[in-house]
Amino acid sequence: MDDLAAKMKAAGMLPIDEILAGNLMGKFSTHVAVVDLPSLKWWVESQHEKYLRMRLEYEVGGKEKDDMWEWVFAHSAVFGTIADHMRKALPSVESGETN
What we know:
single chain
């Protein structure tokens, strides 16, 4: 067990390897409509759009920056990066290509 995992366990937390190993919240941690790659693509793109729209309300829509600003900005950036990588990877998955 590495030092971080030991510290987590000592603090009453699950160690990082257990968190990364699986779905801790069961069916509640995933969207019910996500069952395959096309539905995952839909979900990622819809989350990207949702958080980007929220971010743009702060940036150009006149919404005053508040306690949620950093959270919205971070989610917008993360879902944007995931969407970019998914768009790059999916054509090769759909065609059966491997790198």
